[in-house]
Specification:
The protein is of the alpha/beta class and about 425 residues long. About 40% of the residues lie in helices and about 10% in strands. It is built from 16 helices and 11 strands. Helix 1 packs across helix 5, helix 11 packs parallel to helix 12 and helix 12 packs antiparallel against helix 14.
Length: about 425
């Protein structure tokens, strides 16, 4: 098991708030021309005239790096500070461990604007045939079509971003700016690809994006045999690009790994991730493996998708070729966070998840998710009451009922206890 106290001591030698991801992880979203330092860090704008290194080393990142080196805690990293305050293992420690294991050391922190990220995460667009319950119309065109045809959600008051009450896809850059940014990214990879270890693709659904396939083909013509390619997919893309087309590129990279986004099985998966065809998803997992593509899975745990997560854990241990499992907790919108659920339901979930963890601990250690599952259990067992809990629970009820109505799904698949509790909320 990882010794995170050792990782913390290693970081503390530099600063009590320093994080390798602030230097070595960089996300870029073409749809909005934004970047971030990790998946939990709020994105910020890339300058319209940014070139090369400036795409990944923005003034804001420079400012936050200096703050961390001084022991300050940047506001955008609040999720990790919250985890550490409640005694949980933070993503800061887990991500830093990853880079330490890759051989990075304190010399990383001496760099700034010339830092080349080890991990590059790219979102080319929000084309997607799914409308997952924890997603929104900024990340999914299907979500956009749902609210366009059926109207925005109403009676939700605790989400300042108004994810379900307005069109969020308003920051799209024009085609000329997109083309310029794409060309700068290609130039950067041509010059620095030997220093980049991993490139990951998010969406939308990457496999529905023509730009994704264009860039994969571009990378295949570079000398990238060292590069790990990760594609975060819904495992059921529906367009002319068959997800199994990826197999033609397996000899161009160290490996190609599809990280399927799924945290429930059967009807529950089809409810919380609208667009899922469970049987097709299972078939695609098996076909990818058969064709030489590595398969990993990732869970996004919200107040809805956590309800039957124990059944998913029961299922996943039966698949011997799964490479890894990543588990992430929804932070925003806050009304979908785990702590909004009533204590009785959370206590039941703690028992079920602890049972799965105890029964299959060695497997979850091998998959790299044991600590993450423990963190989920700790969150569910926490007695801290969120601010505005009553309002958050009302919004969860309002959202869930409208989501079921707009997608035509049966809310009862979420479970009798949850549905009964929902009905009791005034």
């Amino acid at each position: 098991m990882s010794d995170y106290n050792k990782i913390k001591k290693h970081l503390d030698q530099v600063s009590p708030s320093v994080c390798y991801a602030k230097w070595l992880w960089s996300e870029i979203n073409f749809n909005q021309s934004t970047t971030a330092s990790c998946n939990l860090n709020p994105p910020h704008k890339i300058s319209r005239v940014a070139v090369g290194r400036d795409i990944f080393n923005t003034p804001q990142k420079t400012k936050e790096r200096k703050a961390m080196l001084s022991g300050e805690k940047p506001k955008g990293c609040e999720y990790c500070w919250m985890q550490e305050r409640q005694g949980s293992v933070s993503d800061r420690l887990m991500k830093s461990e990853h880079y330490i294991n890759l051989g990075y050391d304190h010399s990383v922190f001496e760099q700034d604007r010339d830092t080349v990220p080890s991990s590059v995460v790219i979102t080319f667009d929000n084309l997607c045939n799914f409308a997952c319950s924890y997603c929104d119309n900024s990340q999914s065109t299907t979500w956009g079509n749902i609210v366009k045809k059926q109207g925005f959600f109403t009676d939700i008051h605790t989400d300042p971003a108004e994810r379900y009450q307005k069109n969020l896809d308003v920051w799209k850059i024009d085609n000329q700016q997109r083309e310029r940014l794409y060309n700068e990214l290609c130039k950067y990879f041509e010059q620095n690809h030997k220093k980049i270890n991993t490139v990951s693709f998010l969406g939308g659904e990457p496999c529905t994006s023509p730009t994704f396939w264009k860039f994969i083909d571009f990378l295949s013509h570079l000398d990238c045999k060292h590069l790990m390619v990760k594609i975060f997919s819904n495992l059921c893309p529906s367009n002319e690009y068959n997800i199994n087309t990826l197999s033609q590129y397996i000899n161009c990279f160290k490996y190609i790994r599809v990280h399927g986004s799924v945290e429930n099985v059967g009807k529950q998966a089809e409810f919380t991730r609208f667009g899922t065809n469970w049987n097709q998803l299972v078939d695609n997992i098996n076909t990818l493996h058969k064709n030489g593509i590595q398969v990993a899975l990732g869970n996004t745990l919200s107040a809805l998708s956590i309800l039957h997560f124990d059944q998913f854990l029961e299922w996943v241990v039966t698949i011997p070729f799964i490479q890894s499992l990543g588990t992430f907790q929804v932070v925003q919108p806050k009304f979908q966070s785990l702590m909004v659920l009533p204590k009785a339901i959370r206590s039941t979930l703690v028992q079920k998840l602890q049972h799965q963890l105890d029964k299959n601990y060695s497997t979850f250690m091998k998959l790299g998710c044991a600590v993450q599952i423990e963190s989920v259990i700790q969150t569910l067992a926490n007695d801290t009451t969120p601010d505005n809990l009553t309002a958050l629970q009302k919004d969860l009820k309002s959202f869930t009922q409208q989501f079921a109505q707009k997608t035509g799904k049966d809310i009862n698949v979420l479970g009798e206890d949850f549905v009964e509790w929902l009905q009791q909320i005034d």
